[in-house]
Records
---
Amino acid sequence: MCMQDHAAFDYERLEVFAPDARTGEEKLHHIELWYFGVFDGHAGCGASIFSAKNLHKHIISAMKSIGPLLLKEGDSVYVEEATGPLGPPSPPVLKDTLIQGALEHAFIDMDAQIKRERATYSIPGGCTAIAAVFVLGKLYISNAGDSRAIICREPTGPASSKPPAASSSSNSAVAAVATPSAGGLSLEVVEVSHDFTPETDRSRLQYLAMLQPKLLRGLFGRLQWQRRLRKRDLDKRVMCRDAHMQGWVYRTVTDEDLNYAPMLTGEGKRARLLGTIGTSRGFGDHDLVGPGDIHIKPFLTAAPEVVIYDLSRRHHTPDDVLVIATDGLWERLNNEEATAVVEQCLAKQARNASNRYNTVAQQLVLAARGNLTSKGWRTATDEQVGEDRKLRQLDAIGVCQPAVPKHGGHK
């Protein structure tokens, strides 16, 4: 069996030539970068394998291109030097947005590589992707899909999040937000990603359909109706919403509305785009077609949302961990339940145990999948496990300490 879910890790010391801060002479510097990636494949394992082997290369290349700017002092830098008495031709740019742009560009380049090389290599299907990059004292989580990353941490010290580096649109950098401890937990949860499904990405998909109605080929309608339309609804008022709306409004149903199938159906994990796929972001799927030979790829994007977590804002302990996992875990456990598993497992492990975080990852797998006993597959509470959950052993889960890179840096 070809495993559709894969994970990747890399550590790099980026070589950057830049002027020395004291002497002004050109000098070789090193920027330390840690990378973790999780890839959830569908319709084959080709895209997830290919992405696991190559995404970090695109990230490293993009980071090298902005290396000299990152070595400058301050949180913001001028990307163009002054050329006259009026000063620099453009305002300063936050370093966070430079790194954000590098990560976004790397994801787009990764998808473009799959498109180019799918004829040469076997790269069937597609995959969602989530990547964690530790660099210069911050953690950058880039998510394109329905995998998820959370930080389980002790609720002590000052707030860790930094004000958003940009507006909170789906493709802009946003700050991590902590959720207070609940249900007797001593660890708190910090969400450092947001799930993207056809349901949560609705506005973007509807807006694209509004700009390019030909993509729907007259078979689907972009409006989301509060319920399924029937013939008897003709000329009646039914609630719906369009791309620019978060709420609902009444609309009189027309013949045209009845002739169109809704482009978005279902809720939660059952949400579907054009009746075909349950995700809205990721890599691959360049040859995927839906009903009426509609090409699905124009509606899918590899552009990630980038969330920034500032490691320097608080002291982290060995009991603070970053959990990255595909949707197989999150379909079974919510953030608080996963944190409870982490907390219980850490309490049983010595802080200096070499396999401490591997054990946490294994326990999360068991919590979602269950264990094989004489009674068959059972959870820790002796609940019988269905056939679909047995396959959760193939889901990728990564656990690491967020402060493991010691905040990163350059030398």
---
Amino acid sequence: GRNWRKWCADLFPRRTRVFGSLRSCCVLLWTCRFAIAMADEETKTESVETGENGDAADEAAGEESGSVLSDVLKTPGVLEAVQDRLGALVGMSSGYIENLPEPVKRRIKALKNLQVECLKVEAKFYEEVHALECQYQTQYKQYYDKRSAIVSGGYEPTDAECEWEDDDDEEEEERGGEKADKEAAGKQTEPSVVPVDAKGIPEFWLTAMKNIENLNQQIQEYDEPALQHLTNIELEYTQNPMGFVLKFHFDPNEFFTDAVLTKTYEVKAEISSNNPFAFDGPEVVKSTGCKINWKKGKNVTVKATKKKQKHKGHGQSRVVMKHVKVESFFNFFDPPEAPSEDEEQETEELVSVSACKIFHE
């Protein structure tokens, strides 16, 4: 489960927290909801004070503020900047410390320094855990290779390897008894989707991914025929730089010519000198996909649409084909580029200006 969570969360490609990103998302959504609720309350109060004549103006103002908020949140990088801002709010002073005696304030500063040292040890711990993962991946490989061989049908497990008893076996026996009863009563039973002479475990990886929360939402119906050719997924840890690579292996198919699709992640476990207490474990700082060599007319990430276009000179119209990007699991291999430092600064300024406009209009 831990390895899957690492690569499923691509909501914040530049500084995605490997641990704790879900919590930050919840805080972000709660903050936006709270802001909208506050705007609604202000609108209601002004409506009572101004009467019917003020209703239209207040409603227009509310709609404008909502529109501004919506536009801001749609801007690339804004969610990431808001997340960073919310992270910076953690530990903000309530005024209590400022009113303490100077000797007590001095001891609190000593505690802060101690906490920073503890965080440095924690960062070192995560680095060493990653080094251990790199070391042990060779020991896992033999088992993963055998799993791949069983799934693909390249190896038939022995009777001893197939010995396994659990609650599912009892349920299967009960279902078998019910099936026999139905057949005895002359009723037809539904045929199995998988043929008896099937090789390995058909559609193993597609089924696994569809049973993973959040990941299954990325898989569209038109992705499935291509994903049926997925034969294996490998995880390879890297040390320089610290990170990991996901490798998706495919059988020859009618969709693309690539045998392997990859996505590379760069991870850091460093403490910020500007905001050390925001450290929450390793974070993904960069992700790089790969180019998919689609066969003609088989690219499931785009949709061809026809559009009429008039010539500016003679006014004659013509039909042109446009390719529009659509939701697809395979967009996973084409992550958005990480913003530059200048773009990050510009985004933060946009968030600040827009927030002021929303809350002070």
---
Amino acid sequence: MNKILYSCHDFILLAYFIISLCRRAFMNNLSDYGFIVVQLVEALCMSFMIGLVFFNLGDDQPAMSDRFGLMYIVSALYPYMVVLDVIGKYHKERGTIYFEMQDGLYTAGPYFWAKIFSELPEHTVFMLVYAIPYYWMAGLQPDIMLFLETYGLVYIGVYCSRALALAASALLPSFSTAVIFAQSLFTIFLLSAGFLFNLDSLFVGVKWISNVSYLKWGYQGLCLTEMPGLNFTCLGAEPGSCITNGEDALRYYSLDDFSVWEGCTVVCAKIVVFLIIFFIEIKFISQKPHESTVA
């Protein structure tokens, strides 16, 4: 009976810490309205820029190739900026985290869950701002279910970048080293996503990199959502190289080896891996800041 009471007490105490830290983090986020405005403008400008570049895609052969380019840019551009933003924000908080944990105000567990929960609302809003304009400006399939699938893929892809940035931020003591580390991993994942190189032509010794690249799974998931059901004319095609439908295009670019839901599962699994690494780091690695300001 005593064990049950102790367990209930521990659970209530943990919930109290999580809710308190989550409330504080959420209020701090709202009070930093300048940062929120910058994030919203950044997401909106990127979306409009992408929409203008790929405005009203047609059904000829160049437009077919452009659709793959659009999916690649969507899965890479904003996630890249999110990495920088998350690392910068965490290193501003790092001093507070270190001293409060040193004083025993809370442990790694409550801070971890509060960090995750408090940032989900703003992430959801930013993703809506990012996903809506380019989708309709580019003339993608006017199907609400396909849009929601695309939004979901972009949502988890960008969140995976957030999780990667958190892991890099907690691992390395300074903003600059964390950025270099995270950007290096991001670049490797980006190059092996399947747009710049046909994955079937990669050397076997390095092909495994594409399998651990969350950008590859996100990009291919977007292609598998958008391309099936589309038909293309042969306008602009070289003789004998015309691709007439989305399914053939996916096979031509070696992007048809898994389903959308398999891609979602892999990206979500990588989110979990990065967050577990982040939790281990804040629990066992001192978060003492090595710099007072973030450039």
---
Amino acid sequence: MPYMRPTLESSVMKGIWLWTNSFAVVAVQVPLFPLRSLPPTANDEMPPSTTPGTRYVRERSLPADNDRRLRWSRSLQSAVGSQECLDALSLISIDATSDGQASFIDLPDDITKFCLHTLVAALSIAPQVCSIGLVPEIQATNLEAQWISQSGVTEERPFFDLGLTGKDQVVAVSDSGLEIDNCYFVNDGGDIRKDGSVDMSQRKVVQYVPFADSEDYRGGHGTHVVGTVLGHRSDNGQSERDGAANGVAKDAKVAFFDIGRGSSGYLSTPRDKAGLLNYGRRAGARIHSASWGSEYNGYGIDEYYFDRYLHSNDDFLLVIAAGNSGPSRGSIGSPATSKNCLSIGASQSAGGDITSNMDGPEFLARFSSRGPTRDGRTKPEVVAPGFYIKSAGAQP
């Protein structure tokens, strides 16, 4: 699925985040309407205004050759005093992380770029605000895959030969949803309770956290991803057999965290990224797979919290898809730009899964996002089959 690239020239984003040195600045003391007032310069003149305290930046006081400053000036003046902008700003909501260092501002869907510019400019001059960033919308980004990942030699699976099939392991996955009645996940003890509790007696699904909702849509991304990771076919939830879409760790179990918002393709993750990872950890998982992200290739608040969690829990591995925005340079997306995660690009396939527009498993899929990150780091670190992969299909 395509990702969305948020910029200040478009309101295609979920919101903005603030890194502050004071919990109160956003949680309590953000005065929405005074924020539209701009500090005057020495040469500014105050034009007549019916709005007390509103100040204007005169274009003639800015260098004529500084096009960016002129554009910002015009944009800010278009919003100042605008009833449409005041109405939009009155609808924003504010949330803060548990440590009080970061706050999030959810933006109305119809906020204009002029109102957004005004809000960002006003926040940027507050002494308690250390930095401001975007919160982009995130979206969801096998037999052949088994031997390609294990050996690169046709039909040779040395991990399986040594008994490394995922047995007694739990993998955490966050995605659009999971059809637990699918033959690749069906449990012999009935359906798992979808309340975040853990039941290790289940054959495949030992935990289901209904954060956004509690099911997958038809042909859903999450069911496909979990099938690729650990699907193992069973017709009755007890005896298992090889299926055409068995996963790469077919004997592992899954702790699933549902972040899908219906069939929209958009995902909703917790502000507190430790909460996202801790659920699976409590179920015994030490690997978390996240095949989702955005086109934004910078380092933001989500990457910081993921990196902090992984630094504090050095027995835990977060595996994140690089994205589907290739083949251009620098197209890898957040949160795969994290420093402590393992970012995975997509290679082409082989055998029965290869198509006429592929060259083989030694080649990158054209859509696979490339590095480097915005700050010049090499990403992704690893590639694995991700093009035309046969896996479990959601049929709710």
